[in-house]
Amino acid sequence: MKPVIALVGRPNVGKSTLFNRLTQTRDAIVADFAGLTRDRHYGNGRQGRHEFIVIDTGGFEPDAGSGIFKEMAKQTRQAVAEADVVIFVVDAREGVSAQDHDIANELRRLGKPCLLVANKAEGMRDTARLAEFYELGFGEVHGISAAHGQGIRSLVELALEPLALPEPEDEVDEEEGPSKPIKLAVAGRPNVGKSTLINTWLGEERLVAFDLPGTTRDAISVPFERNGQRFELIDTAGLRRKGKVFEAIEKFSVVKTLQAIESANVVLLLIDATQGVTDQDAHIAGYVLESGRAVVIAINKWDAVDSYQREQVQRQIETRLAFLKFASLHFISAIKRQGLGPLWQAIAQAHKSATRKMSTPVLTRLLQEAVQFQAPKKAGMFRPKMRYAHQGGMNPPVIVIHGNSLEHVTEAYKRFLEGRFRKEFDLVGTPLRIEFKTQH
Ligand code: GDP
Ligand code: GDP
């Protein structure tokens, strides 16, 4: 599971700027999908070898009634509760304020590890200015500049160091072959039928479930086997084991959903046909896309909708979830046990696509054939020249194309290439990332 960092501080100290700085590597991917409203407060961060989830709490607004920060905003408290470490942001230029003290007291009460960070410290020689923040009682203050990107890397190192997380296992995993379980997360907003589906699955006799409480934090994972394929069900937002069955006993948590999605190989995205595709569904779908995980979409409660509603839901999927076009779509009833069989095939297929190995000679040949069929357009004086391609990663598959002037390749051409690669390698249910490396 990725560690979670919460940014806390009064308004205007630069939390959003820092958030953007920490999440920028992934933002570009999401920006491609206009029209998708996303919750800007949760993001995936990456700095060097560290990956983490970052929450921007948006800041404390003064309590209008009493005029003081007596109550930490509910949202902020929840973020702190969900976080492994808090970055407490103050303004290096303005110095310590009464609000900073209020926040400091509240954070102390909540008892999470905190790192005190003074933002807007670019060009500040006068470290005495920073020294005054010691009075907040969080030890050393770290000067950074979110706007100028100064001190960010060491900030992340400092924040994550105490958590002493093991190295990511992904790389080691790759060679292990087909006996490895497929990690599966069932994601969806409350009441779409996640627990019902999982209990139906685990109740089937052909499916051998065995208890093995997870050890990472409070996550639960259930290994089971189906048609000779091993699976591992990852605890998703709010799903908890109660005796023999799963129950949604917690309120929906974005962080838990994100973590489950991140640690899965395949995400089964569940949508409630009786409600249609809601904003929250679109948000979750956006996270799934951003994570790069393979995905299968299942529209649940198909038993409870009439033909008019069915048509409506289908249209909504086409418009609101257009960015998941690569995923296979299933109409199911968890309660009536309808349409569940094909889900397993789809999950296995998505996983196979996501972990497909593509050799450099084959990729290069396909690339050359594609260019012969249709060459990239000239941009001014430049004509992009594609030389060869190699695979840069799995789950999601990444194809790295090497050549010259590749920064001039259009989005449309990129999509054209993606289509060719998808077809050749029979990639269904996984995003495919294409990256360009230009030699100068
Ligand atoms: P938030 O309310 O805490 O999320 O703060 P914002 O990120 O919206 O930033 C508030 C203001 O501070 C904006 O005008 C930013 O441009 C500015 N700001 C943010 N980071 C820095 C920094 O590192 N240096 C300077 N000088 N200004 C910054
Ligand atoms: P969760 O919050 O996503 O785990 O959702 P639950 O599994 O608790 O289901 C929420 C409600 O939807 C319950 O009342 C279920 O009985 C109902 N439900 C789940 N699956 C189906 C289905 O396939 N058809 C119908 N009609 N209702 C369902």
From TrEMBL:
It comes from the Bacteria. Keywords: GTP-binding, Nucleotide-binding, Repeat, Ribosome biogenesis. Pfam families: KH_dom-like, MMR_HSR1. GTP 1 binds at residues 9-16, 56-60, 119-122. GTP 2 binds at residues 188-195, 235-239, 300-303. SUPFAM superfamilies: P-loop containing nucleoside triphosphate hydrolases. Residues 3-167, 182-355 form the EngA-type G domain. Belongs to the TRAFAC class TrmE-Era-EngA-EngB-Septin-like GTPase superfamily. EngA (Der) GTPase family. Associates with the 50S ribosomal subunit. GTPase that plays an essential role in the late steps of ribosome biogenesis. This is GTPase Der. The gene is der.
